[in-house]
């Protein structure tokens, strides 16, 4: 059988571990829940309650990411918000590459194939596909074909942000390139999407460092 990957199954060579929020020391106490009808004021108010102060540009990115998560989850709690803020406020101001699409096809008798589409520094859309040993490996091979940046993935970890079938998974990665080490982080209800966004994040940090040199 074959089909497009929808759940959060992760099969790859790199070491990974999915942990509960409690296991990584996140609080399990009372959490205020937001929904997509909470609006900008509700989001800003809850961020203030959590002691999170954002610049206007940062808040706009967090608000857009919040709406995307709220569209996929009925409820967005404090841990979701903290994962969103962590990703959005660590982004480089000048993102050279942005992820537009990631699609993975798997089968019982073949290797996973990933298709990715990214918008590049030229403002144009770039698409490519690759085969990998697992779905994440296929995604990273496809992204490499597009951005053409030599690097080595040295760390990959996954943890669940919240409980339940619609929980967000937070992916943290580290890559080595041109003598430097660059990290990337992203959260999404689909682990593969989070994996792709974290990888693009790390690549953008590498490119930003090159531009500063």
Summarize the structure.
This protein has about 210 residues and is an alpha+beta fold.
Secondary-structure map:
Blueprint: E1 2-4, H1 39-49, H2 56-72, H3 78-88, E2 98-107, E3 110-119, E4 125-131, H4 135-147, E5 152-160, E6 169-177, E7 180-188, H5 191-212
Antiparallel strand pairs: 1-2, 2-3, 3-4, 5-6, 6-7
What does this 3D model show about the protein?
This protein is an alpha+beta fold and 213 residues long. The chain is 35% helix and 27% strand. It has five helices and seven strands. The chain has a four-stranded antiparallel sheet with strand order 1-2-3-4, with helices on one face. Strands 5-6-7 form a three-stranded antiparallel sheet. A hairpin with a 2-residue loop joins strand 2 and strand 3 (110-119). Helix 2 crosses helix 3 and helix 4 runs parallel beside helix 5. The longest helix is centred in the C-terminal third of the chain and has 22 residues, at 191-212.
Task: Report on the biggest sheet.
Answer: 4 strands, antiparallel
Helix residue percentage: 25-40%
The unreliable regions are: 1-29
- The run of helices and strands is EHHHEEEHEEEH
* End-to-end C-alpha gap: 49 Å
Report the β-strand fraction as a percent range.
Answer: 25-35%
**Multimeric status of the protein:** single chain
Q: Give the CA-based shape.
A: globular
Q: Number of helix segments?
A: 5
Mean pLDDT: 79
What does the radius of gyration come to?
17 Å
* Number of beta strands: 7
* Order of strands, widest sheet: 1-2-3-4
> What structural class is derived from the secondary structure elements?
alpha+beta
């Amino acid at each position: 059988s074959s089909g497009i990957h929808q759940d959060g199954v992760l099969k790859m060579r790199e070491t990974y571990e999915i942990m509960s929020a409690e296991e990584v020391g996140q609080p399990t106490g009372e959490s205020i829940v937001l929904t997509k009808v909470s609006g900008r004021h509700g989001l800003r108010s809850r961020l203030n309650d959590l002691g999170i102060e954002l610049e206007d540009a940062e808040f706009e990115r967090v608000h857009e990411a919040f709406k995307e998560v709220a569209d996929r989850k009925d409820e967005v709690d404090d841990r979701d918000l903290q994962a969103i803020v962590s990703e959005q406020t660590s982004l480089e101001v000048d993102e050279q590459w942005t992820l537009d699409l990631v699609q993975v096809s798997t089968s019982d008798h073949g290797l996973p194939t990933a298709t990715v589409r990214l918008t590049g520094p030229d403002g144009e859309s770039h698409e490519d596909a690759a085969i990998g040993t697992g779905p994440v490996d296929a995604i990273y091979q496809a992204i490499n074909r597009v951005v053409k940046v030599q690097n080595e993935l040295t760390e990959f970890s996954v943890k669940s942000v919240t409980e339940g079938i619609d929980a967000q998974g937070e992916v943290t990665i580290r890559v080595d390139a041109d003598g430097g080490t660059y990290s990337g982080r992203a959260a999404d209800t689909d682990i593969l999407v989070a994996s792709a966004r974290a990888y693009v994040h790390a690549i953008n940090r590498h490119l930003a460092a090159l531009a500063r040199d």
